[in-house]
Fold:
Amino acid sequence: MRSVFLVICLCLLTVLTGVAAADLNVVQTSCNILVAEEECRIVCCAQVHNDSDRLAGLEHGLLRLTNGGEVIAEESVSRIWPYFLDPGGDGYVFETVTFYPDEDGNLEVPSITGVSFEMNAMDVPVSVENNMLRAEMHIERMETGGYIMACTLANDEAETAWNPQVTFGLYTDGGSLLYADGQSLDNIGISGGNQLELRFMINPQIVAQWGGYGVEPAEVRVKGYYRQESD
Structure:
């Protein structure tokens, strides 16, 4: 009886150690600054990787901006794009921190030496995984100096893809993340065999900053997806 109990314990240990909990890790981050008369917006994004063998969602997250050893801003991260990451898959988070003028009306652009995202993951049942759409995107330069990201979402399945979503990351030719964005299209459906055209604009201020750093976008990684209406 003791040997049988030992075998059962070993089997349970094998099962427990062979299934890794969801684990979201930040691969790289990027920040861009937009300055207007009444506010300064720090637009931050991160490429996130699911290092586990489970479908992973975001339980909660935190964006932190630092100047040396001082934390100058914190912002909650409410979601990841797509909602759930496949095992070994990548996605994006992006949040904006806004700074306003002081009591004397002076707006100071903050000095930022560090940006970090903390991701707390949760396991997600496979039954609620995303359904993928065929997505294509290309970069168009605007006369004003910014970029237009022209995107096509195509539904190759027979069922209608309700509430489609798209997310993309913009990279240099060396693979460095410059920018990430996404959009949810609530109460919109793409019927089977049809497609939807979308356009994203990247502010000329941001593009000018890239030029100041001597970098430019060379690659776009885009994903389109939807979830079942009953999810």
Remarks:
- The chain has two helices and 15 strands.
- Residues 1-19 have pLDDT under 50 and may be disordered.
- Residues 2-18 form the longest helix (17 residues).
